[in-house]
Design a protein that fits this description.
The chain is an alpha/beta fold and 230 residues long. Helices cover 48% and strands 17% of the residues. Helix 5 links the parallel strand 4 and strand 5. The radius of gyration is 17 Å and the shape is globular. The chain starts with 8 loop residues before the first strand and ends with a helix. This is Bacillithiol biosynthesis deacetylase BshB2. One of its GO terms (molecular function) is hydrolase activity, acting on carbon-nitrogen (but not peptide) bonds, in linear amides. Pfam families: PIG-L.
């Protein structure tokens, strides 16, 4: 399915490289259409599982991953806003403050489409906290101002619980550029990209998952509002 022309696309994720795996092909497609795209990255990923090669300190990793994100953004012609939260702490942050900071970005960019994780299906606590905060903010917006919510789910239960994606974009023409974007996040992806070059079942499935299509689910904010009232 082809992407539609948008006034502005806003992506809100917690970590550098979150955008690279699930949506970078779509980002580049939007940019080729002339659509402004902004990535609000909540943390610098300083608690990432991989600490670089050669290894670096957590403080240095924060600076390294910020630089990697900026390079990835350059490759995609993407605007990046860092919100300066600490990695792996979002579920413990002041919820009002987190929502306020997210609201500021939404008010500033006025997106017609907003991409974030699908709550309950995004595996990592930071992913879940981000998704919940975003939906809380959108739920409080005037209905006429709300962006179309396009969510990413990758929990192993996704297809059983949510069914087939409601939006699936063919990104095969962006496959090589997406590899370059992933490679820009070298501290986190170097080993993975080496594995993807091997002839294994894992690498075959990963190449299909990341370099052929990107999957999204449209989300009705009224479902979230109803859930919060339960």
């Amino acid at each position: 399915m082809s992407l539609e022309k948008e006034n502005h696309v806003l992506i809100i994720y917690p970590h550098p490289d979150d955008e690279a795996f699930g949506v970078s092909g779509s980002i580049m497609a939007y940019r080729d259409m002339g659509v402004p795209v902004t990535y609000a990255c909540l943390t610098y990923g300083d608690m990432g599982r991989n600490i670089g090669n050669p290894p670096v300190t957590r403080e240095a990793l924060s600076k390294l991953r910020k630089a990697e994100q900026l390079e990835a953004a350059r490759l995609m012609d993407l605007d990046v806003k860092f919100l300066d939260y600490r990695d792996k702490t979002l579920e413990f942050e002041d919820k009002d403050l987190l929502r306020s900071d997210i609201k500021k970005v939404i008010d500033e960019t006025k997106p017609s489409r907003l991409i974030t994780f699908y709550p309950g299906y995004s595996v990592h606590p930071d992913h879940e906290a981000t998704a919940e905060a975003v939906l809380d903010v959108v739920a409080e917006m005037d209905e006429a101002d709300r962006p179309t919510l396009t969510l990413v789910a990758f929990d192993k239960r996704t297809f059983d619980d949510l069914g087939e994606p409601t939006l699936q974009t063919d990104i095969s023409e962006y496959a090589e550029r997406k590899r370059e974007v992933l490679a820009a996040h070298k501290s986190q992806t170097e080993r993975l990209l080496i594995e993807l070059c091997k002839d294994t079942q894992f690498s075959k499935e990963a190449r299909e998952r990341w370099f052929e299509k990107e999957n999204f689910y449209y989300y009705d904010i009224n479902d979230w509002i109803s859930k919060e009232k339960e």
